[in-house]
Amino acid sequence: AGWSDSSQVSSPERDNETFNSGDSGQGDSRSMTPVDVPVTNPAATILPVHVYPLPQQMRVAFSAARTSNLAPGTLDQPIVFDLLLNNLGETFDLQLGRFNCPVNGTYVFIFHMLKLAVNVPLYVNLMKNEEVLVSAYANDGAPDHETASNHAILQLFQGDQIWLRLHRGAIYGSSWKYSTFSGYLLYQD
Amino acid sequence: AGWSDSSQVSSPERDNETFNSGDSGQGDSRSMTPVDVPVTNPAATILPVHVYPLPQQMRVAFSAARTSNLAPGTLDQPIVFDLLLNNLGETFDLQLGRFNCPVNGTYVFIFHMLKLAVNVPLYVNLMKNEEVLVSAYANDGAPDHETASNHAILQLFQGDQIWLRLHRGAIYGSSWKYSTFSGYLLYQD
Amino acid sequence: AGWSDSSQVSSPERDNETFNSGDSGQGDSRSMTPVDVPVTNPAATILPVHVYPLPQQMRVAFSAARTSNLAPGTLDQPIVFDLLLNNLGETFDLQLGRFNCPVNGTYVFIFHMLKLAVNVPLYVNLMKNEEVLVSAYANDGAPDHETASNHAILQLFQGDQIWLRLHRGAIYGSSWKYSTFSGYLLYQD
């Protein structure tokens, strides 16, 4: 899409026209298409100059939700998901509940997990491979729902895996999607 | 700003100097200004080469807050706002509480809503047009404040509307801005 | 990947031209390396054309956590941190708990603070210099943990300082990092 848009902007047919800034909103700022630039020498001969494209930053963003409860009853289970709101770059494995880092860079992660209305506190860990990055807790005096949530911004390397671990407790799932986990690439290295 | 910064980089006075990479940190990476590049042929004639700008990614970010309570008393009311921390791109309608998607792309949304200290649970839905994307819940054994929050990353199309629906309950507003709703464009298509 | 895709599409002349795609492939996707493009005029003289790099957007992202409790006992104390998950751009001062804005732009901030399990409510303010931007509250009928969290998207100017103020209450810290504060540059002006 970025290609076809920008190639219109940079097509040789356009080079003798005055630049139309209106076109510059159409394309993708992170890609650049070759520009054929006419060079007028004293003899007015046209010399095409080919400017080659910039490499485009990868686009990575996932957003997953649970539409059913998760109550494993054993400690330290991975939180898996059953619905994807978004999986740009196809990096998130719904069944494993794991994000597979496709390229080195700075990534943002955020999660919200609603506890079941039972008298057991909820402990959730955001994991990088087997390491606890950040954690969240939710409990209630009364057996009610409450949300455990947290976030992190991380430098990751290709092949790192980010996932949520249900240390203890049970998660409420419904079609209204109270329990969510998302992440995206902020800056590619 | 990006324009004037970059135009300094590409000013004709600079073209005979060796490239100073220190300059490349000054400007805005998402815009590119035309560069007049003198080409010295064997006869030392100056031939200008016009390199056309990259299309610039749109910049879209809003951040809204409530400074007064919202207690409609009827179900499924839109959550409107009375204060804007930011509205880059002028996409958020404060009175309607609606974000109007200006361009296809991947967007991030997040909200935090503090319930009034009353014995009614708070249910909030993040809506795309008339569809529930994700939801949040807050309640307390005691009639106290508690925050309902969630987030989503979505592929949207121009004209989509994102808004918060107060399904049930009442929201606490104050000049300290406990109840907020924000979103931004992560990747333009 | 972006590079090889584009180069296939965009270089019909690559068969007979000597262009080192390796050079453009190496760099950051948001920067551009100077390209010397040989131009053959009718007299077959080589005219080098210097295409100047795009200015690169600054990369700013921090993510901090507390691994020990914070219970100052006096109102309106800065929340300082003792662990950095990330400090891209070296903008966050751990000891002061302050983010120093290095360049004008649009920034995103988010925090999660878990209160100590004591019978004192937790009030946290996100501050810009000495101004309250947004706030968060957590309490419990029972003396239990609960998270105070909020976020904001802001237009900042170079030299602005963003920090968290513990208005009242006490924060729980542990090696599991329940209490976190992060921010990043979304769009550089």
From TrEMBL, chains A, B, C:
GO BP term (any one): cell differentiation
InterPro entries assigned to the protein according to its UniProt record, in alphabetical order: C1q_dom, Cerebellin_Synaptic_Org, Tumour_necrosis_fac-like_dom
Region span, Disordered: 1-37
Limits of the C1q domain: 55-189
Gene3D superfamilies: 2.60.120.40
Stretches with biased composition (Polar residues): 1-11, 18-32
SMART domains named in the record: C1Q
Record's subcellular location: Cell membrane; Cytoplasm; Secreted
Predominant subcellular localization, coarse grouping: membrane
Entry membrane topology: Peripheral membrane protein
Molecular function terms from GO: metal ion binding; RNA binding
One Gene Ontology cellular component annotation held by this UniProt entry: plasma membrane
Keywords, ordered alphabetically: Calcium, Cell membrane, Cytoplasm, Differentiation, Growth regulation, Membrane, Metal-binding, Phosphoprotein, Protein synthesis inhibitor, RNA-binding, Secreted, Signal
Keyword Magnesium carried by entry: no
Pfam families: C1q
Subunit text: Homotrimer; via C1q domain. Found in a complex with LRP6, CCNY and CDK14 during G2/M stage; CAPRIN2 functions as a scaffold for the complex by binding to CCNY via its N terminus and to CDK14 via its C terminus. Interacts with LRP5. Interacts with LRP6.
Family to which this protein belongs: Belongs to the caprin family.
Purpose of the protein: Promotes phosphorylation of the Wnt coreceptor LRP6, leading to increased activity of the canonical Wnt signaling pathway. Facilitates constitutive LRP6 phosphorylation by CDK14/CCNY during G2/M stage of the cell cycle, which may potentiate cells for Wnt signaling. May regulate the transport and translation of mRNAs, modulating for instance the expression of proteins involved in synaptic plasticity in neurons. Involved in regulation of growth as erythroblasts shift from a highly proliferative state towards their terminal phase of differentiation. May be involved in apoptosis.
Protein name, per record: Caprin-2
Organism taxonomic ancestry: Eukaryota, Metazoa, Chordata, Craniata, Vertebrata
